[in-house]
Design a protein that fits this description.
Elements lengths: L22 H7 L2 H7 L3 E3 L7 E5 L10 E5 L25 H6 L3 H17 L4 E3 L22 H16 L4 E7 L12 E3 L2 H8 L1 H10 L3 E4 L3 E2 L2 E2 L4 H11 L5 E4 L7 H7 L9 H13 L4 H15 L3 H4 L9 H13 L3 E5 L11 E5 L24 H7 L3 E2 L1 H20 L16 H10 L2 E7 L10 H5 L3 H16 L3 E7 L15 E4 L7 H10 L12 E2 L29 E3 L8 H6 L4 E3 L10 E3 L3 E5 L2 E10 L8 E7 L11 E7 L8 E9 L5 E3 L4 E4 L2 E8 L5 E9 L3 E2 L1
Parallel strand pairs: 3-4, 4-5, 5-7, 6-8, 6-18, 7-10, 12-13, 12-14, 14-15, 15-16
Antiparallel strand pairs: 1-2, 2-3, 8-9, 11-16, 17-19, 20-22, 21-22, 22-25, 23-24, 23-28, 26-27, 27-30, 28-29
Length: about 725
């Protein structure tokens, strides 16, 4: 059934109707009330797409339709059922942001988000509130799973690809949360205090890349403050940097809240207030009346909203079907997970298994497998494959008693939750105990043990160290006992980490033979894991962040709310009311690598079932930048793909710089054994620059630049250098 927009409006003939080329005329015809109404959105019931995050208001007399905005980022979040119909409106749960960043493959991400974009379009939504792209500053941020990386280049390139894919379907994206929304604790009020250099090079750089390379229709300003000012009220951020410096020509909307000083937001260049309150309209009206908000400022913002509206499907009266191709999108989601999952450990070539083995599958998360996160990052999928189902489908035979035990424990936990009507703190399910005696029996009866560990998180709360970043006592005991018993029996142990953020691995990884990291891989991700276990898929993902040995090794550890504590006098609470980004630019590998701090798994790390040789690279450089080529050959016995990471070590003498910084990356196609591919990576002089606070300018120092071609930040396979003759300023 094709649906034309019921949201659309009955055109009444008392004004010009909105066209893409008559915005000036429309502005003239609009009353101040109408203008203020258009700058303040709404939320709740939208006639044809119930339960979306929000909408922009309709002005029927001028042919201005309502447009619909909904979350993101792991797929479209709309209500799957509606009153009065038995039809369902499920969406595909795609891999979460951190997993797609682990692909290091913007082209793959673009294909995946084309499928996502067509769900947005076919369900009658105009803007997907995604991608989320705040920097992984600290492993405990509760929304890291929605976000992409600790590195701005990887984050920016993946986000740009995401946007291009979604927007290729004629719907928009809203890149969020701009900017420095790196913690959930007190997210509405927290003041992120960041040096100008760290801001430009780390926390804004990824947005800059996404804006310049992805051209999103919209940007969502964040809840938090940045150096004392709400981001949504910062003229410098939303106008000087975003628009004047980077050339963004779209719409800025607030994150979902209502702050005082609506007028300051409007003046700063925050066009649309979401989800929108009457008092915001009143404030705008009063400010126009008093002259505090000039007519020019008002019209500027309204113009941007109108320019956005004429691009939307609702404006075009797109006849959406409410029937996206969920079946083929499930395959896209699965493929995306296959291309992204990271193999962290594979001793004695434990993986791939031969196929057909008897598997003892441990862990409550083998039944309750997390496909997507919670909060606005949740997606209503028709199902999420779990590891029991996936391994069976892949041809393994499960220890049925054990499988049954976990199903039973899971059902009990669910009953308990229902009875207590509690929304339990679901960071992880409680792990049922398995006695050593039972493990001994299972080790005799099965060929291999697979343990699935899970973690979940969502907006509004950060993760904690105890029993979250660190394993719980029962999880630890399970790993210890299973490893001891299976190893005694000459059998192997594999761990699958179905997690939303970094966990501690250093203390237990040596006990097990293999570790697979699918993160939260979407509704089909468990099948992708099973295919990797079976060797049908050769893993090619690499870490988009560092796994530290201890939480306290993280450069921001002392300046992050690592436990939930909101006590103290409001306004004065360190890491709650304000957070000092004392680590400056030393985020992630920039810190670990430069300061020689041991890590559990470095940035950019990931194993394959095959091996790759990196040939001698070539570089052509001039004052504009350089182009490097390198030939990668599959020297192993399985087809596979390799990510080459190009780090640059800058000459000394200029600003203090990290030992190396990621400046480009490229992924081969699937190379057959013996096959080679030459990868080309281009970096401009501007991309080599650092921000000099004393001159408020970007500088590329003169001197010798070393190009390091790595399989990870610490595994450099080839190096060449080139000379920049003169320093350049931007
Ligand atoms: C979240 C946003 C989301 C919005 C609408 C907010 O609470 O921070 O990411 O897009 O809600 O659901």
């Amino acid at each position: 059934m094709l649906m034309c927009s019921q949201v659309a409006f009955a055109q009444q003939a008392d004004g010009p109707a909105l066209l893409s080329d008559n915005i000036d005329e429309i502005l003239k015809a609009m009353t101040t009330e109408e203008k203020c109404a258009l700058l303040v959105g709404g939320a709740g019931i939208v006639p044809d797409v119930p339960d979306v995050a929000g909408y922009t208001r309709t002005i029927p007399r001028l042919g201005i339709p309502m447009t619909v905005l909904s979350d993101g980022p792991a797929g479209l979040r709309i209500n799957p059922t509606r009153e009065g119909t038995s039809q369902t409106f499920y969406c595909t749960g795609f891999p979460i942001g951190t997993l797609i960043a682990s692909s290091w493959d913007p082209a793959m991400v673009e294909v995946m988000t084309q499928a996502m974009g067509s769900e947005v379009l076919e369900y009658g939504v105009d803007v997907l509130l995604a991608p989320g792209m705040n920097i992984h500053r600290n492993p405990l941020c509760g929304r890291n799973f929605e976000y992409l990386s600790e590195d701005p280049l990887l984050s920016g390139r993946i986000a740009a690809a995401y946007v291009r894919g979604v927007q290729s379907k004629g719907v928009g994206c809203s890149v969020k949360h701009f900017a420095a929304n790196n913690q959930e604790t007190n997210r509405l009020e927290n003041d992120a205090r960041i040096s100008e250099r760290a801001l430009r090079e780390i926390y804004l750089k990824n947005f800059e890349i996404a804006i310049k390379e992805g051209h999103p229709w919209t940007v969502m300003s964040s809840y938090n403050k940045l150096n004392g000012e709400y981001t949504q009220q910062s003229h410098r951020l939303l106008t000087t940097i975003l628009r004047d410096d980077w050339g963004f020509d779209g719409l800025v909307m607030t994150d979902w809240g209502c702050k005082d000083s609506t007028v300051k937001s409007a003046k700063a260049g925050n066009d649309l207030m979401m989800p929108g309150f009457q008092r915001e309209r009143d404030r705008l009206m009063a400010a126009v009346k008093s002259g505090e908000l000039t007519q020019a400022e008002l019209d500027r913002n309204v113009r941007r909203v109108l320019e956005y509206i004429v691009k939307t499907p609702h404006y075009r009266k797109y006849p959406y079907s409410n029937q996206p191709d969920l079946r083929s999108h499930a395959q896209v989601a699965r493929k995306a997970a296959e291309e992204s999952i990271v193999l962290l450990r594979n001793e004695h070539s434990t993986l791939p298994l031969k196929g057909g083995e008897k598997v003892a599958l441990y862990g409550i998360s083998s039944v309750d497998f997390f496909g997507v996160g919670t909060g606005s990052g949740f997606v209503h999928t028709s199902h999420v494959a779990n590891m029991q189902e996936a391994l069976t489908t892949a041809g393994f035979s499960l220890d049925e008693d054990l499988a049954d035990y976990y199903r039973h424990c899971y059902a009990l936990q669910q009953d308990k939750e229902r009875m207590e009507a509690s929304s339990t703190d679901k960071r992880h399910r409680s792990e049922p105990e398995v006695s050593v005696k039972a493990i001994e029996r299972q080790a005799q009866a099965n060929d291999v043990a697979i343990i699935v560990l899970g973690r979940i998180a969502g907006e509004g709360a950060d993760r904690v160290v105890h029993d979250d970043f660190e394993l719980t006592a029962i999880e630890r005991e399970l790993i210890q006992n299973v490893s001891l018993v299976y190893h005694k029996a000459g059998k192997r142990v594999v761990v699958v980490l179905n997690i939303v953020g970094v966990v501690e691995t250093a203390s237990w990884k040596g006990l097990v033979d293999a570790i697979i990291l699918p993160w939260t891989p979407g509704q089909e991700g468990a099948h992708a894991v099973a295919d990797i276990i079976k060797g049908k898929v050769n893993p090619s993902g690499k870490l988009p962040m560092t796994f530290p040995v201890n939480y306290m090794d993280s450069p921001s550890a002392g300046n992050f709310p690592y436990r939930w504590d909101m006590s103290g006098r409001r306004g004065t609470r360190r890491n709650v009311d304000f957070t000092e980004y004392e680590e400056g630019i030393w985020v992630g590998y920039r810190h670990f690598q430069t300061h020689g701090v041991e890590v559990s798994y470095p940035f950019g790390y990931g194993l394959s079932y095959t091996t790759f040789n990196y040939g001698q690279p070539k570089v052509k450089a001039n004052q504009e930048g350089f182009t490097a080529t390198i030939t990668v050959t599959n020297t192993g016995s399985m087809p596979g793909r390799e990510v080459v990471e190009l780090y640059v070590s800058a000459p000394s003498g200029g600003l203090e710089k990290p030992d190396r910084e990621l400046k480009a990356f490229a992924k081969t196609k699937t190379l057959r054994p013996g096959e080679s591919e030459t990868l080309t990576m281009t970096v401009t002089a501007y991309e080599l620059a650092s921000f000099n606070e004393s001159t408020a300018a970007w500088e590329t120092a003169a001197g010798t630049y070393k190009l390091l071609f790595g399989a990870s930040a610490t595994d450099i396979r080839q190096a060449v250098s080139f000379k920049m003759k003169k320093a350049i300023g931007f």
